[in-house]
Each structure stands twice: as structure tokens, then as C-alpha cells.
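Re: weekly structure request thread

Next one in the queue (268 aa):
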Amino acid sequence: MDLATLIGVILAIVGIIGGNVIEGGNPAALMNIPGFMIVVLGSLGATMISQPLANIVGLPKTLMSAFMGGAKHDPPATVDLFVMMSDKARREGLLALEPEVEKIHDQFTRKGVQLMIDGTDPELLRQIMEIDAEATKHRAESGAEVLEFWGGIAPTIGVLGAVLGLMGVMEKLENPAEIGPGIATAFVATFYGVFTANVLWLPLAKKLHNNSKHEQHNLELVIEGLMSIQAGDNPRIVREKLEGFLAPGARQKADGKDGEGASRREAA
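Done, posted below.
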């Protein structure tokens, strides 16, 4: 579970609903089934019109990945892994890396190392891995685009719900006592539209974009590591090159390798 996402959603709800209560509002007034149906179902339907069915079917998984966080990577461990493999490959040859393949849990890294051991041409290897990385990015971006469109259309559907509610109020003008509550109910739909868009759909879409950026950064690290080993670079050069992908604090961890670096390689 990504704690930042969970805490952020809870904080937003508490802040908005709590502020409404402090102002003298009644949280029960925000519960309106017709308004909820108009906004949530209406905006979901509009989103389905705009997106391929596969993206809509994958929406639950998309939402789950936003709350659970992106793929778990340990870049310092990846650097240690490639430094170790570069040293072994220089001393014993690429075929000596065969036993290491089964120890690699990350599928992308495992695929690249296996292709490298199989003697794939360096340029072809880079092309294969970059195509795989681009496909990963496309899948992540597709989910984010669904939420972005949903967040963009929800406030408009909320306004539509308010208009429908006001039309109902207009029919009861001969009953002044019902006008006030009727108007309040009409504007609940607008609240639903703005709330879901700006507290849920758009922030979650941004989270997915950020997760995708971090994922791509790690995949680029792996590709550069593969290229360095295949080029026969010195292990120290491999480390210097790959540490460019790490934050300064993480580089210090990688430099203090062998004890904790070995344990990170087991998790890579």
C-alpha cells in the first residue's frame, strides 16, 4: 500500500468534510443518491465512450496500482548486481553469468541478461529492451489517461446534475418551503463532480504518471547496465556510470557495497 496516497485521500476527505461541519454544514446533506448516480455513472459512461474497452476493463487494476504504488525496485541493488556481473563476465566470460539468471527476480532484468548471455548483438539487444520498456510505459500511461479524462468530465457532469435539479425546483415554485432544500440538493451534484475529479481521479492519474517515470528510470538503468557489461567495461566504470541514475544518498549506500550490497542483490 502506498501510504502517501492513502493518507492523502483521508486528509482531503477530513479537511473538506470537517471544514463543512465547522462552517455549520450538515454532512448528511451531502448524501444524495440521484446526484451520485448522475455524476459517477454519467461521467463513467462518458469515459467509456472515449476509451477502448480494454482500458475500461483494466480500470480496477489501474486504481489498485495507484493505491498500491508502482513496481518495487531497488536501484542501488541493481547497480550492485551489474557491477558484480561485469566483474564476473570480464574474468570468466558472459556464459559464466548463466547461474545468475535464476537469482534475478525482476523479469525485465532477467530477460536482458539472458539475451546478453545468448550472444544477442548489442544494438539488437538495446532495441529489444527499449521496445519492452516503451510497451511498459504505454500500459501505464493508458490507465492514467482514463483517470485524466474521467477527472476532466466529472465536474461538467456535476453541473449537468445541478441543472437537472434546478429544473425540478422550478416545477415547485408554488411551494416556497421546498425551494431552498431543492436548490441545496441540486448543488450536491456539482459537489460530487468537483470532489471526485480533484480529490480522486486527477491526483490518482498524476500518481500513475509519476510511478511510470520512476519505472522508466529504472528500466533505463538496466539497459545501460546491459550495454556496459556487453561492451566489457571495467566494473569501476560500470559503477560510476550506473550511479548516475541514483540519488546522492543512494550512491553512498552502493559505495558501501559488499556486506549490504550482497543482500540487496538477493532481492534484485
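The chain has twelve helices and no strands. Confidence is low (pLDDT under 50) at residues 256-268.
Next request, please.
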